[in-house]
Amino acid sequence: MPAVTFHRELPANIPTMVMAFGGWIDAGEAATGALRHLVHHLAVPCVASMNPEEFFVLTQARPVVRRTADGPRDVQWPQSEFFLWQPPAGRAGLLLFCGMEPHLKWRTYAQLLLDVAAQCGVQRIVSLGALLAEQPHTRPARVTGRSTDPTWQALVEAWGMSRPSRYQGPTGIATVVLEAATRRGMASLALMGHASHYLQGTENPAVIQALLTVVTRVLDLGLDVAHFDAAVQRFRARCDQAVARDPAVQAHIRQLEQDYDATGGAAQPAPQADAPHSAPLIQEVEDFLREEREGGGGV
Fold first, then answer.
1. Integer distance in angstroms from the first to the last C-alpha of the chain?
2. Looking at the predicted structure, is the pLDDT value of residue 270 above 80?
3. Domain 4-226 in CATH 3.40.50.720
4. Among 86, 65, 109, 99, which Cα is nearest to 9's?
5. What is the DSSP code string of 82-97?
């Protein structure tokens, strides 16, 4: 079985790719959530996919069995898929990529991904990510970014989103892909949503909305994200209910709010692993939200 399967012939006039990976830098499932929303909203077909057996340890990312509409079971494998949006004449299309961070052969994976992008004519890449940060759920979610493209970097700076990276340490597949893209002469814009560090295992619609707002603005997609407002309000209300259980948690979030307001919403670094109240705070909030979901409340 080939490493990449093509489901239809690819065009060669698509200048931009938007990509997101689940796993390492997908806090609150915001990066993949935003990408999936683009796929759904633009109603784009899957044009190619990567073979999971080449890149995943399937005892760690197990396939899932689902029942089909007519009854038989269907095995669903870890997905790494390309989608193609071709708008009406006069507008540039988009290549979209969404996948889980692979376990194996990162350099091979990156090269194959970029080979498909190059075949489509991609010259620049928007990478979506989300990290855990000192971000209170009661304030608008922040997005920061940096770009190798002068025009995009000027936008990032003009919008107050510029965040020079001084990080050194373990990294994710997106960084590997973007580094390889730079060597190929492809420009990139890395956008990072900031998710509340005490909501690690919870889908965060506020960060999804924030990322989509920036993407639609940068690429002039005309995407209306106002329909996320109700989901964000419900999410914040349930978080408020959760933190109301514990005065220490409330005090911690009030401090986050003060820091956020004092900096005018400027990005703050993620908390240290041994930060006061961090572990019990996370457990308290996530236990409550899990109970809400299991009870049918939903977030």
1. 40
2. no
3. no
4. 86
5. EEEE--STTS--EEEE
